[in-house]
Amino acid sequence: MSFHFYKYKLLQILMFWIACVLNTNADVLINISATMLAPACSITSTDGYDPIEVNFDIVNVEKLNISPPRKSFSIFISECDLTKSLAIVISPKANGSMMAKGRNILATSVEGLGISFSDITMDKDTSIDVGKKTTNLSRDIK
C-alpha cells in the first residue's frame, strides 16, 4: 500500500477521534506530519506470494489436553533490510487473542480454544506470545 493510503487512513482516524472528543461536527483544521517506515522484511508462505495458511484438519477437542496437535509450517522471508533487526509480531485479524497458562495465544472461533506458537530450534522451545514483539527467531517457526 502506498504512503498516501497510510497518510489518508491516519487522517481519517485522527478526524474521527477529534469528532468524538469534541462531540461536534464542525470543520477542524489540523496539520499532520508522520514518518512512514517500510517493514524490515516481507513474510509469506513458501511460494513467496500467498499468506500463510495452516490446516489443522479435524481436531478432537476432548483429546486436546492429552495430546495437543502440533503442526509445523515454513515461512518465506524476503526483501529484508539488513540494517534493521528481524522481529515478528503475531497480530490476529478476526478472533483476537486469549490467555492460556500465562501466555497470550491466538484465539479461534471456538470459545476457549486457542493456538500457541513456538520457535523450536535444536531442542529449545521458545514461546511466541500473540501481540508481543519476538526477536532472535530461528529459521523454522512452528
UniProtKB/TrEMBL annotation:
Coiled coil: none annotated. Gene3D superfamilies: Fimbrial-type adhesion domain. One of its GO terms (biological process) is cell adhesion. One of its GO terms (cellular component) is pilus. InterPro entries: Adhesion_dom_fimbrial_sf (IPR036937), Adhesion_dom_sf (IPR008966). This is Fimbrial subunit. It comes from Proteus mirabilis.
